[in-house]
Amino acid sequence: MNNNNNIKVNLSSGERHSVMDVIDMTKKISGKEINYEIVERRPGDPAELYASSDLASEALHWKPKYSDLKTLIESTWNVYNK
User: 55 by DSSP, 3-state: which?
Assistant: First the structure.
């Protein structure tokens, strides 16, 4: 399907979090250890990435239901562990 009316948007809470923030909070909420390995950044990898949901807000009138990391991870954890 080729539709030129399609747009790509990012959905985000508007907050910046590191991968370690996500791992640490997930460990706290789940009560489980998470195996991970810290490796060197590959050539060309950006130092940091974050999403802006400004376009989603403007084009779709979208806003996040949750914005804090703890609530985001808890709600996801609860969905998958019912």
Answer: helix
**pTM (two decimals):** 0.77
Phi, psi of 33 (to 5 degrees): -75, 150
9-21 pLDDT tens trace: 999 988 899 999 9
DSSP state of 5: T
Distance CA 54, CA 61 (A): 9
Q: Residue 74, Cβ neighbours under 10 Å: how many?
A: 17
Which tokens go with 65? 């239901």
Where in the chain are the domains? Answer: 14-30+49-82
The C-alpha angle with vertex 65 and arms to 4 and 75, in degrees rounded to 5, equals 115
Residue 57 CA to its chain's centroid (Å) = 17
